[in-house]
Amino acid sequence: MQLYDRTLGDWLEHWAKETPDHEYVVFSDRNLRFTWSAFNERVDQMAKGLLAIGVPKGAHVGILAQNVPDWLTFLYACAKIGAVAVTVNTSYKAHELAFVLENSDMHTLCITDGVGGNDYIEMLYSLLPELKTTQRGKLQSQRFPEMKNLIYIGQEKHRGMYNTVEILLLGSSKSDDELNAIKKTVNCHDVVNMQYTSGTTGFPKGVMLSHHNIANNGYLTGEHMKFTQADKLCVCVPLFHCFGVVLATMNCLTHGCTQVMVEKFDPLVTLASIHKERCTSVYGVPTMFIAELNHPMFDMFDMSSLRTGIMAGALCPIELMRQVSEKMYMDITSVYGLTETSPGMTQTRIDDSFEVRCTTVGSDFEFTEVAVIDPVTGEICPDGVQGEMCCRGYNVMKGYYKNPEATAQVIDKNGFLHSGDLGVKDPDGNYRITGRIKDMIIRGGENISPREIEEFLYHMPGVKDAQVVAITSPRYGEDVGVFIIPHQGAEIVAEDVRDFCKDKIARYKIPRYIFFVNEYPLTGSGKIQKFRLREMALEICKENNIEII
Q1: What are the structural domains, with CATH classification, of the chain?
Q2: What is the pLDDT of residues 31-42, one digit of tens each?
Q3: Which of 145, 203, 252, 499 is geometrically suited to a Cys-Cys bond with 259, CB 3.0 to 4.6 A?
Q4: Neighbouring residues of 95: CB distance < 8 A, sequence distance ≥ 6
Q5: How far from 321 is each of 53, 293, 455, 506, CA to CA, in Å?
Q6: Contact 8, 217 (CB under 8 A)
Q7: Are the CB atoms for 291 and 518 separated by under 8 Å?
Q8: 8, 123, 253, 267 from 229: Cα distances, Å
Q9: How far is 28 from 224, CA to CA, in rounded Å?
């Protein structure tokens, strides 16, 4: 294996030349298909269109959209002209979007109509009222002085905004020679993507990632699963998140394989896409796989073409991984990391034993040094001793945008990036994540790992999923609360849960506060918002006059 010094544009043009007629992007539900050469031509035309509306090298171009067909077009168009694609969480409300527009110094923003209850058009008109009276491309906003262009991804026309048809037409005013000259100035170590962390506290931070960061992380991810041009990856995770734009898209980009897209995660569309396209791989967070396996029409679809995939984005229940392996025929792997590490720092390999793939997050990525560091002493922990998961190498971000203080807080003097996650390394070089430093429940001086209780409750009949959180307690400091999603038709009460736990786990680990829900609050990338569960627990207790002791 090796690290490549190619830009995203270099990779795209490589496959457009080597395998011009091979399918790259497929939307199976609408039978929309692009070969590598056709897609590359569209990207070049869009890149020239961005130049035509005055997008300079280094400019920040936001993409606020679900996995629509031109999402990837804008990503690569930005990459070719040296602009930075700022991937924006689709669940953001107006005040969150305003923060990103201002903090990122965004020059151009590409949007769709919206998602769910979010109307992006109205949201932007409220934040940028000048749009309704300003000529396109001439925006002068007092609130967002760097913002110059709005692009609607689609054919519809909106006041003050370009649409993609117009951008492509404007591209004709720029010559190929002009585009090629700009391409030559783009370096693989330039920032190409900026993602905002979805931290539970404080303001989001813009993580700056280079071509070198994300392309190589995607390449190595694919190598660990033995990807080739023959593979077809079903991508139902959001592109604005590193899971989608790096582990999925960069994997396909560096291996020349086909990317089968799902615009918005839907278990039925995902299953149908796998069936129709004979996908060899699919990714997802645990909640996605649970939804697929439990869909009433699951047995109608042929999953036998699948061979591998990634379950990540949250701690993965062992029993769920077993079910995915058995029912979806996948040698499932896990990637561990965070946005700041591009994102992978460890991964299980397809050749690892079933036990290793189910119970660990694998070993170090090549060209990456992972260390378990004692958070108190700063010393590297010996095998089997819990500490903070840290790493250094090619995959570490270039820093937080305009935030050197926060950057210095997570990257130490030795170049190690600190994750905030707890883990241990076994003698075979594989890592186990034992929890987050801030997620650890400390009850009366006893340290309790939420993951341990979640894994235990997963084996209880009738329990579909369980999420354990800390409940602030006057008596104990913190106590154990759990939110349970029962299987359809299952009748479980709180006492059943306590009886199941009794004599099987330590008394102090048995959840005192037990809540039953139909779904969890999720981030736009599908991660469970544990901080919101903690808030919900307090709200439910207050509404039902449950005393917290």
Answers
A1: 8-22+30-196 (3.40.50.12780), 446-543 (3.30.300.30)
A2: 999 999 999 999
A3: 252
A4: none
A5: 48, 11, 12, 26
A6: no
A7: no
A8: 17, 41, 10, 26
A9: 27
Angle between helices 267-277 and 286-293 (to 10 degrees): 80
Strands 446-448 and 441-443: antiparallel
Angstrom distance (rounded) from CA 390 to CA 278? 38
Measure the CA–CA gap between 47 and 168, rounded to whole angstroms.
Answer: 8
Q: Which amino acid is at 486?
A: P
**Closest to 448 measured CA to CA, from 469, 419, 472:** 469
* In the block, residue with structure tokens 């650890």: 440
Question: Which residue has tokens 């939804």?
Answer: 291
The residue written with tokens 């050197």 in the block is 404
Task: Match 């979010």 to its residue by tokens.
Answer: 118
Closest to 200 measured CA to CA, from 440, 450, 531 = 531
Integer Cα distance of 232 and 277 in angstroms: 8
Residue type at position 342 = S
- For the ranges 291-305, 382-396, 448-462, 482-496, the lowest mean pLDDT is seen at 448-462
Collapsed DSSP state (helix, strand, coil) of residue 364: strand
pLDDT digits (tens, 9 = 90+) for 147-200: 999 999 999 999 999 999 999 999 999 999 999 999 999 999 999 999 998 543
> What distance in Å separates the CA atoms of residue 86 and residue 104, rounded to the nearest whole number?
8
